[in-house]
Design a protein that fits this description.
alpha+beta, four-stranded antiparallel sheet, two-stranded antiparallel sheet, globular, Helitron helicase-like domain-containing protein, Helitron_helicase-like
């Protein structure tokens, strides 16, 4: 079919574009596909109410020992050089994707659902930059507090909400000065860990601290101040206690108790069982959920 034929078809059949968009929404990875999945999530919100938590699971695809058992069965991951691991990942993208997908699905089913009494969930896998996968999703937890209108809640109700989320989200580092392990903590299995507290500190220092800012990654010009600032708002203010605040944009934000200006939010159980970078954040408003939809869910895949 030539361009002229296509133009003629559009002129004679105006509904053809809707038909194309309909079929395109079934092609996994396209913008139309993820737009349709976003509508499914909104339908879940209408039925179930706001989710409780946003979560992200990143890949430690240069470190997980089980991945390298899968990619190179005859080799010992403990003796592999970083160059060898990187080469295996680059030469086997489909296998890495298969491993991550299965690992993520199994983790959600066997760990998240059971540990956190998940009543329902939604997630997608996103690919970034060099093709490294991430899982982005939301969880509805049993007995979660109602956060539909926190601005109108009493102090007592706010304290209950804070107490609830403090069980799941932390920015309190157990040992900021913990010396680095000679073995990357993501290369260890949880079954090999002898000191849980030290292991948590090592993981946080390696994969959860935002210590380097760059223009290529996070530095952006603040439209109000005209200065370069980290888009993730690091370094952050230290806090003795968690707080819920109303931002100048009239949004609701949870500021967790913090003893480390550069630490990303984490859940100790999730990071120590998943063994890679994670994020866990509360869903405190429909506005936050809509922003999440726009940022992650409707993005088409780039690889």
């Amino acid at each position: 079919m030539t361009v002229a034929d296509l133009r003629k078809e559009f002129e004679e059949n105006p509904t053809i574009m809707k038909q194309i968009m309909y079929y395109n929404s079934n092609l996994r990875g396209t913008r139309s596909y993820w737009h349709a999945r976003g509508k499914e999530l909104l339908a879940m919100v209408e039925q179930l109410g706001l989710p409780t938590l946003f979560f992200t699971l990143s890949a430690a695809d240069l470190h997980w020992p089980d991945l390298f058992h899968f990619l190179a069965p005859g080799e010992d991951p403990k003796t592999m050089t970083s160059t060898r691991r990187r080469k295996l990942v680059e030469e086997n993208p489909s296998k890495v994707d298969e491993f991550f997908t299965l690992r993520g699905q199994t983790f959600i089913e066997k760990v998240l659902k059971k540990k956190f009494e998940v009543e329902d969930l939604w997630f997608r896998i996103e690919y970034q930059h060099r093709g490294s996968p991430h899982i982005h999703g939301v969880l509805w937890l049993k007995d979660a507090p109602n956060v539909d209108d926190l601005a109108q809640c009493s102090d007592e109700e706010i304290l209950k909400v804070l107490s609830y989320f403090d069980r799941y989200i932390s920015t309190t580092h157990p040992d900021i000065n913990c010396p680095a392990s000679p073995v990357h903590p993501c290369q260890k299995k949880l079954s090999e860990v002898l000191d849980i507290k030290r292991d948590l500190a090592e993981l946080l220092n390696r994969v959860q601290r935002h210590t380097k800012c760059s223009e290529a990654y996070c530095l952006r010009i603040n439209k109000k101040t005209k200065k370069k600032e980290c888009r993730f708002k690091f370094p952050r203010e230290l806090l003795e206690y968690s707080q819920i605040v109303i931002t100048p944009d009239n949004d609701v934000e949870l500021l967790t108790a913090r003893n480390d200006q550069y630490l990303n939010k984490f859940n100790d159980y999730i990071i120590q069982t998943w063994r890679a970078n994670i994020d866990v954040s509360p869903v405190l408003s429909k506005r936050a959920l809509v922003n999440y939809l726009a940022k992650y869910i409707t993005k088409s895949e780039t690889i």
